[in-house]
Amino acid sequence: MTLKTLLKFNFKYYRRHALLAVLCLLGISLGVGIVVAVELINDSALASFASSVDFLSGKATNSIISTYGRIDEKYFKTIWENPKVLAATPLVDVVANTLETGSEPIRFLGVDPFLDTPFRDWVPQLANRDQMLRFFGGNPPGVFLSKDLMSRYNLKKDGWLTVLDAGLEKKIRILGPLPENSGAGLNENLAVMDISNAQEVFGRVGRLDRIDLIIDGPVNSALPNLPSGLKITNANSKKSTLTAMLYSFQLNLTAMSLIALFVGVFLIYNFSMFSVLSRRQDMSLLLTLGCDRQSLLLAFLIESLILGALGSLIGLIFGYSVASYSIGKVSSTISQLYFQVNALHVELSGWVVMTGLAVGFLATIVGCAIPAFEVAATPPVLGLKRQSIEDRAKSLRVYLFLVGAMFFVGSIIAAWASRRSVFWGFVSAFGMTTAFALFTPGFLSPFTYYLGLVFKKIFFNLEAFLAARNIGASLSRTSIAVAALAVALSMTIGVDTMIYSFRTSVSAWLDEALKGDLYISPDTTKWDHPLPTALIDQAERDPRIDSIERYSTYEIYLNGKPVKLRIIESEILRRKARFIFVKGSENLAWKEIKNGAVFISESLAFKFNLTVGDSLTLDTPDGPRKFPIVAVTRDYSSDQGTIQMDRTVYKRIWNDDRVQSIALFLKPGVSREDVKKSLADQFKGLERTIVSNRDMRERVLTIFDKTFAPTSTLKGVSLLVALLGVATAMMAILLERSREIRILGYLGLTSGEIGRMNIYQGLIMGFAAYLIASVCGLLLTYIIVYAINYRSFGWSIDITVNRWIFVEGLGLTLLACFLSSLYPTFKLVRTPSGTAIKEE
Amino acid sequence: MKPLLRLVDVRKCYSSGPKCEIFPLAGINFELCQGERAILFGKSGSGKSTFLNIVGGVDSPTKGKVYFDNREITAMSHVGLAYYRRKEVGFIFQSFNLFPTLTVGENVTLPLDMLGIADYTRAHELLAAVGLDGYWNKFPEAISGGEQQRVAIARALAKTPKLILADEPTGNLDQATGNGILKLIDQVCRESNASLIMVTHSADAVWLAPRHYRLKSGLLVEDNYTN
Ligand SMILES: Nc1ncnc2c1ncn2[C@@H]1O[C@H](COP(=O)(O)OP(=O)(O)OP(=O)(O)O)[C@@H](O)[C@H]1O
Ligand SMILES: [Mg+2]
């Protein structure tokens, strides 16, 4: 028998079962699509800021940045005079929102156009006296804007741009578009202004954000002894720092995409199991007629390759569309949480295409090969009898259960090993899910048996009784579908419970940390926009205000890694707020922080392996300095880790008294609205940034929810994939058991009753999956919280079980199973119950 | 006596186009009274199963009418037919057709469950009558073909139907076992005064009924089976 004949044979099968082929393709393409989409999103985020970094660096070989915030202007001269430095230029580099561009922030670059000439050819060359006057003239300051930005927001030359600096409005004159000498960076939201104007506008008088250099030869010999706190970097190390910051964000996405794929493989397996097994009789006949096993296997292999190719192709298109659709949201989340990225655009790279194809093929081959091998390995005589498959499935389930138990134990060991690397945390989660997937057949068969008895004896519901028994009888089909659904569901329950617990913990922390009545906290805090002193003075003088608490947060470097330094006023906080001390004695800590000790967040303690009693070394203008650690506090504000220091200490050492946000504690009986209004009247724009305690909390929680939004989307997709599995399994049962269903017709069951039985089947499968998933999901929560989350962020989360997650999970599952059983039921009921059976 | 079952000019044809091509039944008139029995012979493909299916309300004739207890079943809806089968007709098949997912007991009581009868004494009696007393909790795959057919007989009679339709009940069994099954059918039908139409190829069955028919070219002819 030739391969061609066999392939034709297989092709005919798919023509008859088109729906199953479609479901299978859908499974592959959903799985591949999600992996591709996540890969694309991760890639384009990285590519975007990499190209942005390159573009902004221009011809600079290196840059000098500060490890504790900003560079004092006075250092520039000595660096510039160094003979090994061929060129140097001082820069103010700051991101700000404007009224005109709304949610799209702009990067403002303050430059000295003469010094900058060797670096960037897109900085405007000032041709005439008039232009010079307007560029350098400070009142009002002028900017050149990228052309793209101007046309997108319909900004005109000589028009106005309203910058929101620390939330307050500042008018700037638009001088015209930036020259477009280089093709790159066209999608950059960029504004260029004179450096001293920029220092003025953004509260940076006397300070620089960066010095760009062109150095000939090795860097270390050129600048052997930089002043303390200055650090020399280049574009590459900047890129890798940013990449590291995105690590956890991307990890989350990647993990979820792998789950979707995992479920997708289940679906493919489910399908091909059915497609192969339902051709079992034909296969056995072919074998008895003299066809050899190799050709048979080869035919199946080619078949699955074709399916894999088609599915992967559709998956690529699907993934590309999903990525293009959601990229806007992702880039705004990244901008909000980590660093400024421009509106991203998705590009399909060869690498992503390869990954997608590889994943699709691998999944298809894993899914299809196992059942095909099973058929080819079965002696033809046995193959002719259908019941023998179920007999084998029955004996198999004991082994599966045992293997599952091994996975279970393995998962616990891996959870324990996660203290070495978070990798083991993922292994643990994967192992736990696999264990429960393997338990499924062992659970399903007694479960459906006794559930059937309950339906019959207690509820006198014949259809449900028969439905339960049917599931138990087609274990080889149903248990795979139920396992896939259980995997997807338990991930959903596990992740949801984790997010809920996390949110509850964050919310509890906010309750303790945020005790002010009003907050002036522009969301530009992360871009270091200090509040004007006039505003702070005003608040301090106001007789209605009991006290104010001044905060600032700076991005600094600890052992070369970016962390947050938060400046607090311990005097006031000790009275007004409540910190959650994980380690360290509260009284001693409050006393010591005034003497120069620091509090560190759990995430910092975890990342740098520090604890109470240790000390950390920070760069200061007078050289490195040690700070003893007196407390580890719970603090979810940044996954990079936070150091808290008293303002008096900071001011003394760094000679810097910037304030980025303040909390106002009102005297009893004073109306918040009144204070809010009278302050906002004096500072234009303040009405947008002065918020109540409750709004402040809400704002933080909104960011939290945004971070987890992609997770929910992915979770939904894997659930969808799993439900397709249920539909496939139901079709499989119908096709296989059509004879029995007809006998039920002979015995007098109406089509309606048979249809009802079929729907019960779907519901019972959903319910069984839900029961498995409840247990597995809860265990997963513990693994995610303790073995993954803690190991990657250092955050401790109190696990809180929300019973609504479970209620909602059950409701959604039953609803979805009901819906996915509708089509098979419709097909079933269309043929009248009494249809003649043919004797074998 | 009024006939229990009456067929009036029943015709059945199968066609792939507008023209009838196969005529398994080409005008059948037939009557059967309560407690009466008939045996149906005929070559393979002569339309015997088609005849039983139409009588049992599983298939509908292309033309003609079927009355049962003075009700015209050919005019019934699908649901009406299902209830007719559920209450009045017991089927016995050549290949037993027990539900592999249900135990012997559950198979026998299934028709009772459908009628909402919670009293299983009749099912237990029948199972004892067919000699399978201790088999209640066994699954069909664990018993022999002859035993399976005995369970199927018990299932067909559990609801005391007025009409038993048996399509080659001994076709899959050896002669000795087959004869045992025939005796059993005789016994249980007599007990419940059920009418019986049985299709068979076997001469061993002739004693079971006084009336013998043969389906030939779609017509029913009386046949005094002798060979
Ligand atoms: N659904 C159908 N479509 C077309 N022809 C059919 C269909 N069902 C039965 N037939 C034809 O009707 C004729 C009668 O079939 P039936 O099953 O009644 O024969 P039978 O007498 O029971 O044969 P056997 O002794 O082999 O069981 C046969 O020629 C068969 O090919
Ligand atoms: Mg027949």
Features:
heterodimer, A: 840 residues, alpha+beta, ten-stranded mixed sheet, B: 227 residues, six-stranded mixed sheet, four-stranded antiparallel sheet, 31% helix, 26% strand, globular, binds adenosine-5'-triphosphate
Task: Write structural notes for this entry.
The complex is a heterodimer of chains A (840) and B (227). Chain A has 840 residues and is α+β, with helices and mostly antiparallel strands. In chain A, 61% of the residues lie in helices and 15% in strands. Chain A contains 29 helices and 21 strands. In chain A, a hairpin with a 2-residue loop joins strand 6 and strand 7. The radius of gyration of chain A is 33 Å and the shape is elongated. Mean pLDDT of chain A is 82; it is low at 381-386. Chain B has 227 residues and is α/β, with parallel strands linked by helices. Chain B is built from six helices and ten strands; from the N terminus they run βββαββαβαααβαβββ. In chain B, the strands form two sheets. A six-stranded mixed β-sheet of chain B has the order 6-7-8-3-9-10. A four-stranded antiparallel β-sheet of chain B has the order 2-1-4-5, covered by helices on one side. Chain B starts with a strand and ends in a 5-residue tail after the last strand. The chains are: A alpha+beta (840), B alpha/beta (227). The A-B interface holds A 387, 456, 460, 462, 465-466, 469-470, 472-473, 739-740, 743, 745-753, 832-837, 839-840 and B 49-50, 53, 56-59, 78-79, 81-87, 89, 91, 93-95, 97, 99-102, 110-111, 113-114, 116, 118, 141, 167-168, 171. Bound molecules: adenosine-5'-triphosphate and magnesium ion. Magnesium ion (MG) binds next to helix 1 of chain B.
